[in-house]
């Protein structure tokens, strides 16, 4: 998620529109629910780079961050 925060908007959108984030989740994490939800975000054309980034970060945090 740290790397995700440092990617410029143009690069972020390039990879988002190609489906690279869900593909990475599929190949590396193998969490079907995360993959499907990421794919849904990747197809939301009206989201800004910041909003799509926040949505993907929230998905990851919900599943892989321990409660405080």
Write up this protein.
The protein is an all-alpha fold. It has one domain (2-62). It is built from 5 helices and no strands. It has helices spanning 2-6, 9-18, 20-29, 32-42, 49-64. Helix 4 (32-42) packs antiparallel against helix 5. The longest helix has 16 residues, at 49-64. The model has no long low-confidence stretch (mean pLDDT 94).
- What is the straight-line distance between the termini? 18 Å
Question: How are helices and strands ordered from N to C?
Answer: HHHHH
Please give the count of helices.
5
Q: What is the tally of beta strands? A: 0
Helix/strand-derived category reads: mainly alpha
Oligomer: single chain
- Biggest pleated sheet: none
Bin the helical content.
over 70%
Number of domains: 1
Poorly predicted tracts of residues: none
- Averaging pLDDT over every residue, what do you get? 94
Q: Give the overall shape.
A: globular
Radius of gyration: 11 Å
Tell me the β content. under 5%
Task: Provide the fold topology.
Layout: H1 2-6, H2 9-18, H3 20-29, H4 32-42, H5 49-64
Helix pairs in contact: 3-4, 4-5
